């Protein structure tokens, strides 16, 4: 059996070293016809059978070193998919390699792929395809050992209609007219740095690009491309800062692709090609810290990877830590402290949503028979950061602790690690401070649900204006509402405005008279910064302002970033008068949503999955 609870493959018996993929993208049938040649190394003697992860794939044939191999599809599992069990026509000895070639076709409902109609794109003329393989969806696009514990290089060629462009999480390696069909182009890609399957990514669409640095381009539909080039113009500065902190950037180029609005995440750290949501295009670069986060993943996540999804905090906690260290270099220590305060609130929000006793709020949860998508939250990010910040304080400050993080990255580069291996290295690195480390309540941090056992004390200098203004609103009675003026809010930076609203969202709902007055004085409905708008609309719906409900549902469906879409739907659903309206809106928009988003919103709204797909 696999030691990864989300995979069928056994990694003690064999390991994939390289994938050679050929894709034919069919926009009419919404499928990819594919062939993958896996270079596999046997890790035991008399090796003669292996299991690959698949999900909703139609397997046409399997060959091993050119000979026909017997294969069988095992029992289907609710979220792991179906094991592809292959018997080889020969035996191998430990250390020998062979090439397993699988010809197959994806399903139109493949969980890794979202097929957009022209109407769902910004340009409205051409269809669009994008993938999202994290956490365990690559198996619906390629039969593989779909676990972060296995790393391999890959080569790909992708045939697409000639008026579209293909890009992947790899270096571009040329293009040519498809010799089988002159109406199509084949794009080639090469990834020479070993990486896990969840980082394989493909996008096909009417794409343009702009250079934004010596090793960076921004890609998107032409409607977004110039906005994106402006928004992400500090990319090279962030890259250089990250290199200074964490060591050389090994992936060659660093491009950013702005996806259509249905992309479910703020960003996805696919190597060489970070995916970004258009909700980051605020017009003032204020949300570009998401790019600092994805850049940081080039070291923590992509270079050093969690061995299974139970250790996801190793990816995300370290990445948040590195992201905030980049912010510290570029904006100062007070800015890092301010960001940390906001992160603690996001953690509190996730713990409140799951429940303080939910095992999914453990830093290291048990994911046996748990879909990692269901476990996704800010817990690994912010509880992980809180632990690292706590250790930073114990070990001697940010420069000292960043020395450990850099050393950890160098030690485990190109491999996958567990929490235990990380902790052992921590004790080795700080061997002269072991007595302090032993006093840390590791069990409470790692394996206990709820908020962390230690609440860090952050510098509130940048937060003081937000705290003061939020307190003034919370304490104001009806007669004091006229004391507020436009300048209260105008004097706050974008980051402070977000924090002010976050503080209010954490409290009991404001009286309706207060939010109406806030709109009258600050005109918050006019703000298009997605982080400000999201919190403002949550605030309004909680205060039972009926006029805000259509605006909240519009934001929930105009874009599909789960950070915004799920809470907005939940807020409207919890407003009893509009419970049915929330469900109706979701069912109407479900076909346009990303499969992962749609599945999770359905659970949030207690909508039967079969019912919502048949309506």
What are the low-pLDDT stretches, counting only 5+ consecutive residues below 50? 610-615
Number of H/I helices: 21
Computed structural class? alpha+beta
Largest sheet: 8 strands, mixed
Mean pLDDT: 95
Helix content: 25-40%
Distance between the termini: 40 Å
Strand content: 15-25%
The strand count comes to 22
State Rg: 25 Å
* C-alpha geometry: globular
Strand order across the largest sheet: 5-4-8-2-1-11-14-13
Structural account:
With 615 residues, the chain is an alpha+beta fold. The chain has 21 helices and 22 strands. The protein has an eight-stranded mixed sheet, with no helix packed on it. Strands 16-17-18-20-19 form a five-stranded mixed sheet, with helices on one face. It has a four-stranded antiparallel sheet with strand order 9-10-15-12, with no helix packed on it. Helix 3 (289-296) crosses helix 4 (312-331).
Please describe the topology of this protein.
Blueprint: E1 14-26, E2 31-42, E3 47-54, E4 58-64, E5 67-68, E6 70-73, E7 82-92, E8 97-105, E9 113-116, E10 128-131, E11 152-161, E12 165-168, E13 171-177, E14 184-195, E15 202-205, E16 208-213, E17 216-220, H1 222-231, H2 235-246, E18 255-258, E19 267-268, E20 273-276, H3 289-296, E21 304-306, H4 312-331, H5 333-354, H6 372-375, H7 379-395, H8 398-412, E22 415-417, H9 419-429, H10 434-438, H11 442-447, H12 464-475, H13 486-490, H14 494-506, H15 512-522, H16 530-542, H17 548-558, H18 562-574, H19 579-589, H20 595-604, H21 609-614
Parallel strand pairs: 1-11, 17-18, 18-20, 21-22
Antiparallel strand pairs: 1-2, 2-8, 3-7, 4-5, 4-8, 6-7, 9-10, 10-15, 11-14, 12-15, 13-14, 16-17, 19-20
Helix pairs in contact: 2-3, 2-4, 3-4, 4-5, 4-7, 5-7, 7-8, 12-14, 14-16, 16-17, 16-18, 17-18, 18-19, 18-20
């Amino acid at each position: 059996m696999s030691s990864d609870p989300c995979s069928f493959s056994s990694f003690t018996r064999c390991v994939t070293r390289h994938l050679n993929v050929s894709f034919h993208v069919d926009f009419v049938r919404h499928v990819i016809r594919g062939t993958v040649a896996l270079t596999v190394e046997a890790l035991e003697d008399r090796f003669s059978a292996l299991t690959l992860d698949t999900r909703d794939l139609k397997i046409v044939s399997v060959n091993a070193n050119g000979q026909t191999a017997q294969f069988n599809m095992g029992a289907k599992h609710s979220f792991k998919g179906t094991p592809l069990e292959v018997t080889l026509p020969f035996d191998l000895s430990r250390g020998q390699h062979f090439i397993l070639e699988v010809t197959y076709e994806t399903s139109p409902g493949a969980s890794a792929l979202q097929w957009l109609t022209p109407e769902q794109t910004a340009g409205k003329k051409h269809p669009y395809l994008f993938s999202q393989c994290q956490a365990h969806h690559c198996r619906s696009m390629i039969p593989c050992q779909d676990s972060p514990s296995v790393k391999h290089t890959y080569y790909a060629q992708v045939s697409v209609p000639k008026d579209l462009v293909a890009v992947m999480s790899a270096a571009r390696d040329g293009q040519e007219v498809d010799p089988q069909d002159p109406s199509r182009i084949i794009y080639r890609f090469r990834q020479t740095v070993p990486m896990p399957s969840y980082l394989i990514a493909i996008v096909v669409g009417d794409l343009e690009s702009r250079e934004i640095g010596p090793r960076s381009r921004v890609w998107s539909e032409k409607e977004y491309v110039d906005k994106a080039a402006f928004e992400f113009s500090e990319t090279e500065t962030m890259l250089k800062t990250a290199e200074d902190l964490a060591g050389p950037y090994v992936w060659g180029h660093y491009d950013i692709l702005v996806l259509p609005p249905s992309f479910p995440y703020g960003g996805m750290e696919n190597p060489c090609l970070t995916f970004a949501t258009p909700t980051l295009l605020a017009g003032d670069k204020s949300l570009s810290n998401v790019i600092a986060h994805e850049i940081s993943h080039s070291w923590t996540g992509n270079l050093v990877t969690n061995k299974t999804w139970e250790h996801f905090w190793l990816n995300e906690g370290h990445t948040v830590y590195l992201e905030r260290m980049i912010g510290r270099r570029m904006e100062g220590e007070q800015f890092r402290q301010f960001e940390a305060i906001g992160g603690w609130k996001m953690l509190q929000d996730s713990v409140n949503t799951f429940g303080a006793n939910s095992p999914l709020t453990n830093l290291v949860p048990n994911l046996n028979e748990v879909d990692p998508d269901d476990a996704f939250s800010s817990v690994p990010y912010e509880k992980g950061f809180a632990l690292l910040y706590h250790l930073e304080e114990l070990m001697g400050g940010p420069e000292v602790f960043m020395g450990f993080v850099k050393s950890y990255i160098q030690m485990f580069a190109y491999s996958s690690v567990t929490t235990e291996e990380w902790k052992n290295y921590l004790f080795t690195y700080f061997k002269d401070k072991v007595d302090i480390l032993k006093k840390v309540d590791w069990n409470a941090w790692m394996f206990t649900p709820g908020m962390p056992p230690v609440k860090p004390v952050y510098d509130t200098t940048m937060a003081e204006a937000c705290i003061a203004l939020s307190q003034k609103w919370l304490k104001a009675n009806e007669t004091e509402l006229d004391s507020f003026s436009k300048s209260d809010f105008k004097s706050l930076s974008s980051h402070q405005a977000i924090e002010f609203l976050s503080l209010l969202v954490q409290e009991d709902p404001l009286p309706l008279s207060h939010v109406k007055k806030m709109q009258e004085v600050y005109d918050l409905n006019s703000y298009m910064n997605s982080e400000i708008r999201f919190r403002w609309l949550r605030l309004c719906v909680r205060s039972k302002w009926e006029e805000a409900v259509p605006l909240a549902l519009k934001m929930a469906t105009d874009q599909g970033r789960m950070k915004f879409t799920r809470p907005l739907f939940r807020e409207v659903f919890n407003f009893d008068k509009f419970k049915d309206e929330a469900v109706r809106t979701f069912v109407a928009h479900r076909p346009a949503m990303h499969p992962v988003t749609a599945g999770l919103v359905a659970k949030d709204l207690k909508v039967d999955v079969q019912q919502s797909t048949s309506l």
